[in-house]
Amino acid sequence: METDVRVGVDVGGTFTDVVVAGGSGLTMLKVPSTPDAPDRGVLDGLDAATERADFAPADATFFGHGTTVATNALIEREWAATALVTTEGFRDAVEIGRQTRPDLYDLRAEKPDPIVDRDRRFEVPERLDRRGEVVEPFDEDAARAVARTVADADVESVAVAFLFAFENDAHERRMREVLREEGVDAEISLSSDVLPEIREYERSLATSINAALKPVMNRYLGRLETGVADAGVPTGVKVMQSNGGMASATATRERPVNTLLSGPAAGVRGAAHVAGESGVDDVLTMDMGGTSCDVSLVQDGDPVVTTEGQVGDYPVTVPMVDVHTIGAGGGSIAWVDEGESLRVGPRSAGADPGPICYGRGGTEPTVTDAHLLLGRIDPAAFFEGSADEAAVRAAVRERVADPLGLSVEAAAQGIVDVANANMERALRVVSVERGHDPRDFSLVAYGGAGPLHAAELAAELDVPRVVVPRSAGVLSALGLLISDAAYEEGVSAVRPWAEVDPADLTERFETMEAEGRERLASEGYGPDRRRFERAVDLRYRGQSFDLRVSMPEGRLDAESLRAAADRFHERHKRRYGHASPNEPVELVTVRLRSRGVVDPPTLSVAEGNGTDAEATPRTTRPATFGGETDETPVYDRETLEPGAELDGPAVVEGVESTAVVPPGAGAHVDDSGNVVIEP
């Protein structure tokens, strides 16, 4: 039996992935997700893992979780009934939003449904100025009247967002007290806790989302924590945050808005770690699962973090890994639109019933089904009860080939080509459109379907190499095991940079560090495991956007501030192609990341039965590339040892994913066990 075991469980749309790190290395497995009750899938995965990895739940010293519960609730609009209390005159700000539209020239563009309906939005007379000084006192009588109305309303949660609360939170905290005094028995979220930053709409929206998700996540985490404890796991549940760091379940309950990119962030962290182990620090990441494809960028070994993210129809400005998501997964459904054009996604067959070839009742052709017809996958190798090829062929003929006048094989190739085009555009968004040349990066491909497409995408983008991790099919779950605890705090303090007192700024950082130190200590991270990373958001005066600049440790002085301004000018030029060193700079937000450092597990995996450094194929089968069908060697991923080399066309089958090496490409297995493809 194993001792000192770390367990990571990531819930996806089709499968729930589990990685166990113990004395014998890594054990990886997948179980079907249970969309109606995701916690059941997590517990199924834990149960299966105890048998596969031969460990007792009582030996687990860490249990990490990546979840889509908050994301799905927001996208599917299944949040809790929520009320919003705001400054008098600003009741509708959260619905009016910004002037930005998804399509500038679409005269029929519609705004997303407001998180809080208008009849549940309330105003209280009070007003602070931009420095947090009281302009209009907090109206106690009006606040009590609002609180009584909220108490009588059918709401589970309340958001409080007053003007300039990031400079002075006294009015928000008093409002919370009044709500409790008047008998409001609901969750309460304050903007000064959730997102104490400028931009009224974004701050109010983030607070409203947090409030709307709180009851949802409370119920889910309550069931999960109970189930994990009942299974015998003695350690608490840690949850991946959107910023790429782990947090306690308690902290997650308070700020569920920070988990909206939980699963994708775990994958990017895992990709960054695996690439770093292989000596590559600058990578594009591509996670293609059953329902979507998430792409991101890693520079100097760290995922790029943004505060300009969007989840579904809503801008979410909490710190999150800069992930761009499209509806292109292995389960994405192929269809012909009214203009007789082939489309793929965004609708997905999901986990139930899934692609036709899974044999679980699916009737609509998917990307995975197209790969079966092209000979690139064999579902029977990783999914029990898979359907025969005849059922897939009949569906592709009926839904795609006949309407377009194509052969079944041409239709299957078209499905893959359209999916590739969608993903290529997504990769350009996070690279070219951000000022990065793809030729300077490697591509890390993971997820069950990512390695099937990666080499062809790399060839289109002139990316020189593709890294397919040995744990490609469960990399998000692995990312849970190697990620530090991380808590991000940001407080806006808009000032001319020239007027910022270095001593005052130092004091702000030290206060935030003291809070971070206390939080990390409460979670068991000793002094040698605590790290604090300072940063400020700066902008030119008059700009509406800002850039993040790192700040040094210790006491700051005038020279520290001058150096930060210089770094800002350099970043601005790199990001936008120009800079104005003579223009005045403004401080926007002071930020601190508090990290509890963990020792990542060794990435060795329990070996298979073979030691095939000569890369001998297990079998061959007909596979189609570019309209040409050839007998193609199929390799067993578990028997390929470091140093093994192979030439395309080739298929490399693993337990969790399948990689394709196209004709003309070469591949080898590096010292970390990753398959490296050079298109």
Describe this structure in words.
One of its GO terms (molecular function) is 5-oxoprolinase (ATP-hydrolyzing) activity. The relative contact order is 0.11. The protein folds into five domains: 112 residues, Nucleotidyltransferase, domain 5, CATH 3.30.420; 112 residues, no CATH class; 223 residues, Nucleotidyltransferase, domain 5 (2-Layer Sandwich); 113 residues, 2-Layer Sandwich (Dna Ligase, domain 1), CATH 3.30.1490; 60 residues, no CATH class. About 1% of the residues have low confidence. It starts with a strand and ends with a strand. With 679 residues, the protein is α+β, with helices and mostly antiparallel strands. The strands form nine sheets. Strands 13, 14, 15, 20, 23, 24, 31, 34 and 35 form a nine-stranded mixed beta sheet that branches. Strands 3-2-1-4-11-12 form a six-stranded mixed beta sheet, sandwiched between helices. The protein has 16 helices and 35 strands.
